[in-house]
Amino acid sequence: MYCRLMSGALNGASPLLVQVEACALPGMPQFNVVGLPDAAVRESRERVRAALANSGYKFPVRRVTVNLLPARQKKGGTCHELAMALAVLGAAGEIPLEHLSGILFAGELDLAGGVHSVSGIPYLIHQAMDSGLNTAVIPLGDAERFGSIEGMRILGVSSLQQIVELVRERCLSNLPDTALAGWEEFDEDLLESDVISESEQGPEMALERRLFTEHEPDFCQIRGQGMAVQAAVIAAAGGHSMVMAGPPGIGKTMIARRMAALMPPLSPVLRKKLISLYEIAGELSTGKVYQELLRGRRPFRSPHSGCTPPALAGGGPQASPGEVALAHGGILFLDEACEISRETLDALRGPLADGEVSISRIYQKVVYPCRVILVAATNLCPCGNRGDSNRECRCPSSVVRAYSRRFSRALLDRFDLKIPMDIPDSNDSMASSTRELRSRVQRARAVAARAYGDIEACNGQVSDQQAFQRFESMKSQKLGKAGERIIASWGRSREKIIRVAMTIADLEGAESGVSGESGQFCESGQFCESGQFCESGESGVQRVITLDARHLAQAAWYVNAPILKE
Q1: Which of 90, 125, 223, 422 has the most CB atoms around its CB within 10 Å?
Q2: Is the pLDDT of residue 527 over 70?
Q3: The total number of structural domains that make up the chain
Q4: Could you tell me if 162 and 91 lie in one domain?
């Protein structure tokens, strides 16, 4: 007999629906799996056989072949095991087949017949909906975790025996939906301690409490370094990468670790994508990362200086996402960057330029998104005393040159902001609070999002065509020869100067009350929990954000500031 069911798995970060076919023919008893299975799928034969036996079902004494379509794509993981077991029973005539059409089956089996969680369930379900399926049978743990999805009936099962008996009794429709916390919504059960009534605290304070704890590190703890703090605001507002260079202990790491708090909450689409990436990487098991993503917090990744190119950019036997992909939509921080090997650092050049990392194998090509803000911090020499007026650097000039050359010219070109830093004076003032700086960043981001028509769009990460079109619309008539001279004089840096100058203009325009390219004046505005920009207040004064020579001059300094001098 022949049986066909629908299953699926993640192919990189994209869902792939798989038709699981089973055929039981007379002949020497065998159990073969074909359709480009990897080692994990081939091992599924033993788990399926044991799960059937321990659930009280006889494995057919026939030549059983399971085929995974499309056969041209390599299949990996354990997501197909529930469908394989049911298909074998269907091919052996043990269960009726008429009630199994239009259903997605996904789950991993243990030897006792239990059904366990797998990666990428929400994305498989949405892909199944697009393909016309109306029901999904998934592990009970995943059903309780992700909840109901509009337009799809979600059935959670804990064992193979449970689903087989329901199919045999033709009462699959009687299994109640598992409708818990919605996938599109925040999981309130995980956030009981953070929920504040908006009627008591207001929507902005409720969002503050949801995203950040009262013990969160604050920019107001940083003394001096006004130029570096301003660069951090520009980087967070425009999605620009930045590198800070100077002696140790002057605040480079403090600034970098506070930058993620400046950015707006994750949008629903980006949050889903990140949860998928973290599932593939196996980093959702602790629950803490999952809770932070549900809260809408941007990722902050800080790999060790001894990491390898596959760990940073992605790769390995399973083509897993690296640190740059796991920082998608957030910040990738490289502390002591010159201690990282040049080969590892140069692995970031392509992903930073393209906004995605492509990992190719013979039968597989996986693409992971990686729109990140790269922040690097480095000393000026191996001993760290170079640039410190109170200490003497004894590093030979040849060692200093070799140290600075860890950053290739091509990689340095990926940084929009270059910040040389000195030891602050004890009389220097403290920086503004994170709340004040975050308000500026979110308003500026809302300006750019409205201009580009995309909530996640920012000046440093849009295409060249979009950036130059917006530059032409923002360019002031007063730009004059001075502004044109600034742009022309820096050649290869022209694009970066324009992008940074637009972000500086957005920050100034947002502070003056301009809420968008249309020039509407708005007294208040903020990003809400869904990642959308909400505004309130009276509209009246018509203004337009303009970019002049002053913005270009500031941008030119940030883009071309001298660092890592030999």
Answers
A1: 125
A2: no
A3: 3
A4: yes
CA distance 545 to 410: 33
Q: Verify that 248 and 397 share a domain, yes or no.
A: yes
For 86-96, what is each residue's pLDDT tens digit? 999 999 998 98
Beta-strand (E) ranges in 118-206?
135-139, 153-157
Q: Are 390 and 528 in the same domain?
A: no
Cis peptide before 70 (omega within 30 of 0): yes
Cα separation, 41 vs 363, in Å, equals 15
Domain identity same for 425 and 442: no
- For 381, the token pair is 């020499």
- Cα of 553 vs its chain's centroid, Å: 33
- Which range of residues forms the domain containing residue 470? 435-560
Side-chain-side CA neighbours of 378 within 13 Å: the count stands at 26
Domain annotation covers residue 225:
yes
Contacts of 379 (CB under 8 A, 6+ apart): 245, 246, 247, 248, 336, 338, 386
Quick one: which of 70, 65, 69, 73 has its CA closest to 2?
65
**pLDDT digits 0-9 by tens, 139-174:** 988 887 766 667 788 888 999 999 998 888 765 554
Q: Beta strands 63-69 and 14-25: pairing type?
A: antiparallel
Buried b (16+ CB within 10 A) or exposed e, 326-347: bbbbbbbbbbbbbebeeebbbb
Distance CA 368, CA 326 (A): 9
